[in-house]
């Protein structure tokens, strides 16, 4: 897998076309939403789904990167919600 250092986006650096990057982002987003809604019981279920869906190393890596970023965002939002409830 070649990493292009002069790229503007991570997917471009990994050689993933924009349309495929959007598809991967939608897949990961839906998985995270299922977790947040309680329809998935763990992050490992999302990782299994990503592993089943994306066999290409670059696509798999990009999906895992997006999963990490998405979970970070969700945890920050949840933390803000807890702090807001605590202040009230």
Keywords:
88 residues; mainly alpha; 75% helix; single chain
Report what the structure shows:
This protein has 88 residues and is mainly alpha-helical. It is built from four helices and no strands. α2 (18-36) crosses α4 (57-87). The chain is globular, with a radius of gyration of 15 Å. The mean pLDDT is 90.
Major sheet size, sense and barrel closure: none
Beta-sheet strand percentage? under 5%
Would you report the number of β strands? 0
By oligomeric state, this entry counts as single chain
- Measured distance between first and last alpha carbons: 51 Å
Give the CA-based shape: globular
Taken in chain order, the helices and strands follow as: HHHH
Helicity level: over 70%
Summarize this entry quickly.
By secondary structure, the chain is an all-alpha fold.
Write the layout of secondary structure elements.
Layout: H1 10-14, H2 18-36, H3 43-53, H4 57-87
Helix pairs in contact: 2-3, 2-4, 3-4
